[in-house]
Amino acid sequence: MSSASAKSISSWLQTRNKHWQRLNELLSIQTDKKAQPLDEVLEIVQESRALARDVSLARSVLPNGKITRSLEALFARSDDVIYRRPQAFWHELKKLIMIEVPQVMADLRHDFMITTFLFIATAVAGWLLVWNYPEIVSLFAHPSMIDTVQSGNLWTDNLLNVIPSPVLSVQILTNNIVVSLFAFVLGAFYGIGTLYIISMNGFMLGGIFAFVRQYDLDGRLFEFVIAHGVVELTVICLAGAAGIRLGEAIIRPGDQTRVAAFRNAVNQAGKLLVVVALFLVGAGFIEGYISPNDTYPLESRVVIGVCYGILLWMVLTGKIWQVGKRNE
Amino acid sequence: MNLSMDDQITIQSADATEFSLPVAGIGSRSYAFIIDWHIRVVIALAWVLVMFVILYFSPEENIGLFTDSFWSSLAFIPAAIIYFLYHPVLEVTMQGRTPGKRMAGVRIVALDGRTPTTGALLIRNIFRLVDSLPSLYMVGMAVCLFSKNAVRIGDMAAGTLLVFENKTSADDFEQFDELAQNEQYAPEQLEVLRSLLERWESMEAPSRVRLAEQILKKMDVPLPEQTAAHKYGNSLHERLQAVQQGEQF
What we know:
The complex is a heterodimer.
Chain A (H helix, E strand, L loop, with lengths): L2 H30 L5 H24 L4 H17 L6 H44 L10 H8 L8 H4 L2 H21 L6 H22 L4 H34 L6 H12 L1 H20 L7 H20 L2 H8 L1
Helix pairs in contact in A: 1-2, 1-3, 2-3, 4-8, 4-9, 4-11, 7-8, 7-9, 7-11, 8-9, 9-10, 9-11, 9-12, 11-12
Chain B lengths: L7 E5 L5 E5 L3 H32 L11 H25 L5 H6 L1 E5 L7 H9 L1 H4 L6 H9 L6 H6 L1 E5 L5 H12 L5 H13 L5 H14 L10 H17 L4
Antiparallel strand pairs in B: 1-2, 3-4
Helix pairs in contact in B: 1-2, 2-4, 9-10, 9-11, 10-11
């Protein structure tokens, strides 16, 4: 480098350094507090624009140098502050649930039919297998559970004497949310993980019902399950549909790269999980308070189960948001 | 120069300025995770311990922490919440950082170099379920080793990555001033010279002498007279310092 250009770089550094220092100060203030006087904000924007030119210059004149790295870091920070998204959590959530989820649901209808069909088919298979070979039940049921059923009782009897409702609800809803999340994320393995979760759940449901049927307890188990089961089983199939979409994106990414297709699928289908999780919280409380409580007759359980299911469906399809509008 | 240990991601800002961020690899990632893991385990255990102590001194007898469901849920549910929600909650509130990441000097950013959205941070955490399979984050680490930008599946899903957080310090500006004062030599050569001087004491004598000679030659500065080995080293060191001060030879 000639000494002339060394000189010009020196003078550049000399004139610009205090501006960078100032910007650095302003940014530290900006990250510390929420509201900042307008003139300071405008100063940040102005200094950042000027810094952008400095960064370009530094990258061409002093590539890989410490100056370049520092300026880049400073620029990244100012860029982040200037283009910071507005904090609108509740607004975003409302938009997500009211507008985006119904769109995603319409888009996933096909996948949902596939997972539901798979669930029903494996449930029938589980039923047939356990009905014909009862010993298979020991593969997925705990020995103490089998003993209870064989003595003519359900493991759900006296459940509330062992675990109080609030604890039971929290345990159940956590477990269900984790299972649904698994059904979704395991779609990352080309969808196979999702298919496995759905089939296992279907198989176990069918198998257990066939098992209790042999001891004439199926009616009572149905009574226990119906209030929360409608939503819980639907939701598993929904999370599965979202998971299948991930596998689909990886197997057939279309015009995008696999990673980009995967990312888009997660972003789209994942929106469903917000509604899924919310409804699972409700289902958990139904399963903790209503299902094990003998004072609720079958009729009210069926009504609760079906109504909660209809509510889920109306939220998913967005129909519930149109109810009020039609009356206007 | 694009060594795998020194990867960068180049980003174009909204006003078409290019800048690069240094990508953090599997080492810094694990380092941050291990620190965070210890923090959350300690806090969660502390909570359980507090409940245990309260129960121990409570007047009611015959209540066991593990047998009474009310007390056990009071002890273990909050502990579980601390343990499992540590990452999602802190990453959202600290804008892509956690205490462990801060200590490791790394931060989560979106692919555009900015703070990720809340949705992206949640997605990245949900996918911990896959990355932590079958145990000890084996899937995550394996994917990290081979993926572009050294990310795990959760980051791919969310469109995020870990970068080193370079904070510009007051020290940097001093150094810029120093460079600006020195009009005799090219700044990029002075930068190299400075980094050699910073490392002088920790380097082996033959290598630092060799590097000092190379740098001085490149800057057209005459070398000091050849004398006994350690004296020569000292005079090289002095000459480097003199050049840094802007002295001409």
